[in-house]
Structures are given as C-alpha cells and as structure tokens.
Amino acid sequence: MEAVASVEKTKFSRRWDMKRKEFLMLLRQPGLLLAVLIVFAILFLFCVYPLIRLFISCLTDESGNINFNNIRYIFTKTDYFRAFWNSIKLGAFVGVFATIVGYIYAFAIKRTAIPGKKFFNMMAMFPILSPPFVISLAVILLFGRSGIITKNILGIEGNNIYGFTWLAIVQILSLFPLSYLNISGMLESLDSSIENASRSLGASRLKVFLTVTVPLSLPAILSSLLIVFAKSLCDLGNPQVLAGDYNVLSVSAYLQIVGLYNLKTGSLIALTILLPCMLAYIIQNYWVSKRSYVTITGKATGQVELITEPHIVIPLFIILVLLTAFTILMYGTVIYVSFVKTWGVNWTLTLDSYKFILKRGANAIKDTLFLSAISTPVTAQLGMLISYLLIRKNFIGKKLMSISTILPFAVPGIALGIGYIVSFNTKPLLLTGTAFIIITAMVFRTLSIGVETGSNSLRQVDPSIEEAATVLGASNVRVFFNISLPIMKSALFSGLVNTFVRSMTSISAVIFLVSVNWNLLTVSILSEIESQRMSAACAYCVALMVLVVLAIAVLELLVKQIFGRRRKIYE
C-alpha cells in the first residue's frame, strides 16, 4: 500500500511540476497569455455561462430555492429512458454510416481520377443548404401514404415511413456532408509521399488504403463521427416530422416547452443530451491524443498520385451517382413544389409563390444574409485561433477550453436559445431582441466544427516548421498568420462554408431569439409549413439554397485571393 501511495504521489508531483512549468512559460509569453485569457472569457460568457444559468433555473423555483420536482417529473411522468435509448441508438447508427458515406465521397473526389468532381462536390453541399426538415417533407411527399412514387407510381397505399428506418436514412443524407467536408480537408492536406512510398515497395492499393490512408485520416474520421453523432442527437426538425412513435430526446424537450408550456422540464431534458455527447468527445479526444498523425514536415513532397484503376474508380463513381440521384430527387421535388399552385389540389405551374416571398419575406432574406455574413468570418477565425492554441500550445486549462467549445454544439439548439434568453435578458447584458444575440448564437453553435477542422489540419503538420520560424525571431502572432493559417487554408474554407451554411439554415437555436426587428428565413419557412402553404415554404427553400450556393462561390474566390496574395508577398 505504501508503494502504491508513493507511486501516486510521484505521479501527482510530476503533474504539478508540469502545470507549474506551463504556467511560468505562459507568463513569459504576454501575447499568448492575452490570447488565452480573451478566448477563455469569450467561451465562458457565451458557451458555459448560458448553460449554467439554464441548469440553475431548471433546479430552482420562482423564489430561487432548490427544487428537484422537475427531475422527479422527468423520471416518473415522462417516457424519458426510452427516448434516451432511442436517441443513442439513432445517433450511433447515423454517426457510423454518415461518416462512412462521407469518407467514401471525400476519398473518391480527393484521391481518385473520378470524372465530374466539381459536380459531385456541389451536389454534396445540397443536403446542408436548407433546413433538414425540408428533406423529411420531400420524403413524405414522395414515399408517404399519399406519396407520388409509392401511391401514384407503385400503387402502394398507406405506406408508413414514420419511425427509425426513414428517420435514419434522412439524417444520414442530411449529415454526411459534414463528414465529407471535415474528411476532405484532411485528405487534401495529407502528404501523399507516404502512400507513394508504400506503392513503390509493392503494396497493393487496398493495403495502402487500409494501413496508411485510413490510419492517418483517423482524427478526421473520429471527429466526423463525433460531430454527426452530436448533430443527430440534437436534431429537432427531422424527428419532429418523421419520428412518429419513435420518441427521441430533442422532440420530447420541444413538446414539453411548446406543447405543455413546461419550460424548465423541457430545458432539463435537452440538457441531458450533453452526457452522451461529452462522453463521445472524451473518448475521441483520448484516442487521437495517443497517436501521431504528422505527414507535413516542411520537406519536399511528391504530387498526389490519383487512382485511375477502373475496378476502383467505377464502383466509387456508381456510389456517387446513386447518392447524387437521390439528392436530386429530393430537391427536385422541393423545386417543383415551389412552382405548383397548390400541392395535391391544383397542379398549375405559376410564379405566385416567388412573388409572395419577395413581397412578404424580403426583410427575412436581408436579415438572414446580413447576420450570417457577420457570423461566418468571426466563427472561422475564432475556430482557427482556438485550434492553434489547442494543438500547438501548452497552457493550464487547455482541456477546459476544448470542452467549452463543444458545449453549445452538444446540446439541442432550443436549450442554447433558451439559455441565451435566461442569461442575457437583464442589464448589464440586455441582448434579447437584438441582432447581436442572434449572431452569437450562430457563432458559438457552429464553433466546434471550425475547431475540429482546424485541429485535424494542424495534426498533419510537423511543429518543427513553426518552431523554425520562432527560432528565427518570428513572434507567435506572425507564426500563426504567416505559417499556420496558410497551412490550414482547406480547413479554413471548410469552416467558412460550414459556418455560413449552418447560420443560414439554423432554426432550433434561434427560433426563440428572433424578434419583430430581426427575422430569419428558416423561421419563415417553418411558419409557412405550419400554415400548410407548402409552395411558399418550398419557394423560400429554393431562394435560400440559391443564396448559399452563390455565397460559397464567393467564399472560395476570397480564400484563394487572400492566400494567393500572401504567397506572392512572401515569395
């Protein structure tokens, strides 16, 4: 026992010495210290504090006294445990298969000579260009009890699509682009010289893929699995439309708040989704931290050798064609409905829906573009900065910073939105009803995606490149902006795209934050659906998708120009 105690004491002493050295080193770098303090302050104010306030409000009564009635109500009066298990099963299933689909898609585009790459890349973006419940509605219109395909073409009446199966299919289709964007950034930055060396030594394509490519891209695979898992758990739109009697936590929380007007109980149910999300994050972080994934060392590297063998390219091409065809079918239905007078009643083609949204929804379109345009660069730059601090710097509270970034993403958007209302509804932080509170909700709801993509990119880069610049006298700020950030160009673009798309299509986190002064397209779409004006709702969706596609093209052009100009300056 004494020997064990001595060993534990030694371990504790070593940890203490390490933390003390990290603290002293941080004090010697005022720029780094200032950056860490600012990031911590921002994360606490907009990520941690709202959830703490929300949790406290759920466990207290109107007088401020501790009250556990809400917890007892959840466990005794609701079907909480079945909803919890259903959510975990759905999230795990969707996370695994969406990551597999995303990896196949990314590998086909980045590592093979498959034709039509630009087209497939554009089509992969469509599932995240609109609110997720739009795909669910398209599925109902096509395959439901009165669906065009099931009833009118196949003659199947009363087809039941509500439940786990179709809900999982729709979520996989909706969420695999997140995995695709995350993994494609890593595959693009992955040094192909290691794969080329393996091929030169006689290894087959399959062996190189299984023993080199997949292990080196494991950080992106695990982070994609985490992102999709958390997004599936927090998804409200798809389960609300397609779940049926397959009860999940996000819908349970929403029904408690909106249906039963039980704000505290619903918020508490939503907060419990944090538990599986944080557990998945800890496992993912532990696994990645135990291995090295460096491939970019500053030495000359070979060109990427694209795979041209027909027995590899053709099957991948068929898979991408099938996915693209299904996507076109879904969104083609939405586009067609936007031109129909009245779905199911009057099939006359007309532009009345577009005239209606341009007249009634002009302010919503302007507000959505304005708020998303502000939140996008803020989220991307903050995400790159945080990923740089987490991967390249050692300081006290590093794990706490990492966990703080994922908190707003790991809870349902309705919980975050209500947390913002509870926290910022009184002076000196009176933000409700303003554009600022909507922008902050957009920023910190999607921040973890930017952090993950930036972290995965930096794990591919040997720190000696940055260390060499530091030895030559470059400051931490100069190293970050002139070396680290250009290396993370692909991750930065992925972060910009993800942030803008999620901001434009966000609904659960902002539905309680909009006001008479600021409205959003997604809220307008939901309002039209609830009013059964399907053509107008689809017209809104088409307008939103067109705006997002144009914005992505502009973002890609800006990223190329910025980094191209910087490269020319330093050459």
Question: What does it look like?
Answer:
- The chain is mostly helical and 571 residues long.
- The chain has one domain (53-570): MetI-like fold (Orthogonal Bundle).
- Helices cover 75% and strands 1% of the residues.
- It has 26 helices and two strands.
- It has helices at residues 2-27, 30-58, 69-77, 80-111, 117-125, 133-143, 148-153, 164-189, 193-200, 205-216, 218-234, 237-242, 249-259, 263-271, 274-289, 310-338, 352-360, 362-392, 398-410, 413-423, 435-458, 464-471, 476-487, 489-505, 521-530, 534-570, and strands at 340-342, 346-349.
- It has a two-stranded antiparallel ribbon with strand order 1-2.
- The N and C termini lie far apart (64 Å).
Tell me, what is the CATH class?
Answer: Mainly Alpha
Q: Would you tell me the structural class of the helices and strands? A: mainly alpha
CATH topology: MetI-like fold
Shape: globular
CATH homologous superfamily (4th level) name: MetI-like
Structural domain tally: 1
Strand count, sense and closure of the main sheet? 2 strands, antiparallel
> How large a portion of the residues is in β-strands, by DSSP E?
under 5%
Mean pLDDT: 79
Characterize the quaternary organization of these chains.
Answer: single chain
